[in-house]
Amino acid sequence: MIPINVSCSSDCCSTDIKEGVCPVCKTKGHSVKEVTVKRFSKKTLLNDYTGFYFCKNRNCDVIYFKNNGFTLKKKDVNTLVGLKEGKGLLCYCFNKTVEEVKENKEKVIEEIKKKIKEEGCKCEIKNPSGRCCLTDIKSFH
Ligand SMILES: [Zn+2]
To answer: Is 77 in a helix, a strand, or coil?
Structure first.
């Protein structure tokens, strides 16, 4: 295994990460920023896009949830979440798919790290998880 040092050029991966528990599957999820939910929600939420968490449990239909039990499910978001579907994109900044990761994870990780260095990433508006994909890719199987 190649050691992975996540070093995003933007602050999307490092700051203010809180944990919440998904009301449906009871799995822990991480907080996502307002801008992320706004970008991916199909529903209009009357300007209340704050306080959401992301559920990454593949067997759960929930994408975003709040501590009060409010959820946005797969059908409520405008993109396919590769992490949940087992197909589609895992890295949304540089278009790396589940298939590519399955085929050669180390290569994909190296490419993403190189791209982050060269171009920077925009995870919080491109990735529905709102965070850098490297952690997810590393643990994806
Ligand atoms: Zn869940």
So the answer is: strand
Whole-number Å distance, alpha carbon 117 to ligand 1 midpoint, is: 33
DSSP letter at 122 equals -
Q: Cα of 60 to ligand 1 centre, how many Å?
A: 5
How far is the centre of ligand 1, averaged over its atoms, from the C-alpha of 19 (Å)?
13
Q: Provide the mean pLDDT of the chain.
A: 89
* 0.70 surpassed by pTM: yes
Domain ranges of the chain: 16-78, 82-141
Confidence band (pLDDT; 50, 70, 90) for 27? very high
CATH architecture of 16-78: Single Sheet (2.20)
Task: Give me ligand 1 centre to Cα 101, in Å.
Answer: 23
CA–CA gap between residue 86 and residue 56 (Å, rounded): 12
